[in-house]
Specification:
By secondary structure, the chain is mainly alpha-helical. It is 60% helix and 4% strand. Residues 427-447 are annotated as: Disordered.
Length: 447
Amino acid sequence: MSTALFAADGAADFSQDTWWLVVGKALAIFVFLVVTTLLLIWFERRVIGRMQQRPGPNRTGPFGLLQTLADGIKLALKEDIIPKNAHKAVFIAAPIIAATCCFIGFAIIPFGPSVSIAGHMTPLQLTDIPVAVIFVLAVASVGVYGILLAGWSSGSTYPLLGGLRSSAQIVSYEIAMGLSLIPVFLYAGSLSTSEIVYAQTHQWFIISAIFSFVVYVITMLGETNRLPFDLAEGEGELTGGFHTEYSSLKFALFFLAEYVNMVTVSALATTLFLGGWRAPWPISTINDGMFNTGWWPVLWFVIKLWMFLFFFVWVRGSLPRVRYDQFMRFGWKFLIPTSLLWIIGVAFIRAIPMTDITRRQLFLGIAVVGVIAIAIVWVIDATRSPEEDEQVGWELGEVDPFAGGHPVPPLPGQTAMLTRGARPKVAALTAAGDPDDEPLPEEDPRG
């Protein structure tokens, strides 16, 4: 394929890349991700510290910049412990799988247009393929095997539960993430990242696909196991989750994978919705777009990337962890159905110019569909019986706090029933009233 054809359709031209140029770009991406991770951990601790009115790391290095490096050295010098009941081979391979997939996914992200390096014109991108975005999603789905295998191979209950949670979570939110990207493909007419950036020359897709952008931002939090969706490692109920039994460099690899994954999904969001490496308006109009050529685009790309990374940190310092059933319900019952409806709407709008439908007829049809949808929802809600509403939530009334074998406090609308033996004392403690108001029944000496 000729260079002119590449320039016409917006795809990157790698015809002048030599082996040392490819190796150099791969090494540059690796260094960029590692340095960004070191800075991101420091940045996160400093920002959340300011949000919580505390300084954050400020001792090691100027402004505490070397604190992350010191923590990495500390992890490397710690004793590497493998549990007795662990499956050793899988236990060692799991963190390697998780960390490797995050780096591979960054290979198709374009940092900028073609520039001259040592006399060779080469795009600021390691590689590009016609299905580049699908490649990133596929690599991300493989990365979850690292978390799942880590939980299974540890030979412990809490890591296993964390791994199972993660697998269900990634499957659920990866579907919604994939659906949120389909409107971008419809607008760009391609799945190649360089062609998608080229298609945003005049207008970024955040404007025409704003709902897809919102869904993607939500799903990238769930995809990376970040608050408020870090349920695979929920300290309150799973101790440390899937990495509870890990220590030393193996734990550091999981830590690295999480932050590199944050950078990857942020870079993908920048590429698909914010014009990629293109300068924002009105900077892009100065001197016939001189700031969209050369090495300037790298600056715009990094600025947009750090905007998303700040959003990750901001959300972590602002929102509490959600309940797991709420999280899964939100993904399956809201994000996925609404994304499907949005895809249908975008496809319909894109097909309008090829038909004889006028704008007035279009808006009238949208209004009619909206009224019908509201009426259907109203009819379904009106025909629901109170018994069905009670069955949706938990069981109300009097419940046995020992029904599952372990004492559980009553939920709102429940009261703890008194049981025989040693259970009355605990049941009274879990009741809604103050246990100090009346004496507790004595334990049965036989029980």
